[in-house]
Write a structure and sequence with these properties.
- The chain has 3 domains: 58 residues, no CATH class; 141 residues, no CATH class; 66 residues, no CATH class.
- The protein is built from 11 helices and no strands.
- Helix 1 packs parallel to helix 10 and helix 4 packs across helix 6.
- The two termini are 38 Å apart.
Amino acid sequence: MLTKTLPVLPRRRIIAIDALRGLTFFVMLFVNCLSGANGIPYEAAMGLSIQLWALYFYAAALLVWGTRSHRPLRWLGAVVIAALALMYRSGADGQGWMQTSWWGILGCIGWAYLASSLIYLAGRGRLLVLALALVACVLWFILSHALDGNDVIAMHATHTSLVLCGALCVLLFFDGARGAGGARRLAAGMVLTLVLAAAAWLLHHIYPISKIGSTPPWALYCAALCSGLFVLLYWLIEMRQVVRWTALVQPAAANPLVTYLLPVVLATLMHYLHLQWWPVLMHGGVAIAFALLFSVVVVAVVAVLNTYNVKLKL
């Protein structure tokens, strides 16, 4: 019996996807800059500040996973990472070692990508399988909250639903086996957007829109917004060939990890040097303007780093 082959997807870079990724990272930089919340673990037992420890770690990670790092530098970075791991202390008394704990947003993204990839491969990229898995993720959250289940697993289910929405959108637009023209792909994308928005609206009558709570309305509204934005970008870039403006966000799209980590490194360095932004820059309308300027500067710095092939690919 013949089994279904995986969808036929284009091997070339899709500028519209790069544009969406770049815009996403730009907005992420903007909102992160507006956030004033910072926290550090207990650190006295390590013999150096957590900020300096983190700076050493970022430098070592760049040596190990930087695309132009030579083998001796990679080994040096690996040794530094191992030494930092042995040096790390945790707990109220500083006697604990490095251990598993909350993995942060990047870890949540990683788990969601893993689960979605396994579903995609198991279902051979079938749209129906992905759609059913999406519904199952939402139902998992609903049942978990109704039956006082595991909140962490429910959170992962919601994050996985976001990735599955992205996979559905990609297949509707780029699965060559479907043979649909540009206009039909746009229509399919618009239908997906409306269905996701309608589902989010219905669930919003029961659950709040909460990123921290990882609620289905939050995930589905985000998926609907991104799908709708991609419909617009696909029409503008792939069909109308309006591409010159994408150079503004291309650096962030091509080097997302460095784009994400640069503000973190800067914040860590400022904490270590006991520096902070002027209060006037973090208040009211000035804060919004400053966040926009900061995001532009970060993307510009990433563009310069890209010319020297300073990239992180884990």
